[in-house]
Amino acid sequence: PVVFRKQWEQALAIGLVSFMVPFLGCAALAFWGLGWSIQASWLAGIAMSTTSVAVVYAVMLELGINTSEYGKTVLAACFVTDLATVIALGLIFAPFTVRTLVFIAALVAAAFLLPWLTPKFFRRFGGRPSELEAKFLILCLFSLGALATWADSEAVLPAYLIGMVLAGTVGKNHALIRRLRTMTFGLLTPFYFIRAGSLVSLPALIATPAAFLLLLLVKMATKMIGAYPLTQAYGSPRREGMYTTLLMSTGLTFGTISALFGLSHDLIDKGQYSALVAAVIGSAVLPTLIANAFFLPRHLLPTNPNVEEKEDNADVQEP
User: Fold this and answer.
1) Per-residue pLDDT tens over the stretch 297-312
2) Domain at 2-13+23-314: CATH architecture
């Protein structure tokens, strides 16, 4: 939150442009180039406009860049991009009913109550073997996620909201972050991707590989067109600007969430879903490989890559 307040203009500009240009470009490709329906094309634009916070965070965490001001600014821009895609998915496809109003009211209440309630709960019940801090966060996520599903919206929206409003509280607890990371990457995420991957039709993907390749290339090209000039406008060196742009070109979690939303609501068929998921997975790998191979800003790498690990371990040691 501190870095976002300092760099809000840069993070907001790069994040919004990183969403808008790929959203329009990939939607246009799907509609005019691939012959998809208007709803399927809008969904393709949303799925391909995303930036994978999980991939960017994992890459920066591995390299130790996540603790730098540069790394936090890029992560803030990634959050802006994905928040824009979440809102676009809700505005374009979610129905506006009484349930929607209840859901919005609950989100607003959570945004104000959780930053006040969470520190008090952690001080009162934290530090116990039962891991009540993690259970409290999971309860909040699952409750608001269930409410989002009841309102025909997406559960990822309250998840992003909770993450943003609690960043100043939860983000300072390195031991809790380490436990949440282990639980998320080790348990929860694999189940989701097994489900999303099991719905991919390999015969459909093999029959029409052009859709997957075109979506992937247009996503990377439009991200480059949108984000790179802004990084230069804000004074980033060329290497850092290219590295930022390529990281913003990644996609994974919310891209597949959008595709799965479209398939479950009959907005796209299984062949279109397979092309979108394949393109999203490709965007998680290809830009990252290019970025780390050719544009890695080595001057930002910490001199001691084990600093964060030592800090995390110190937090969990008994006094």
Assistant:
1) 887 777 654 544 444 4
2) Up-down Bundle (1.20)
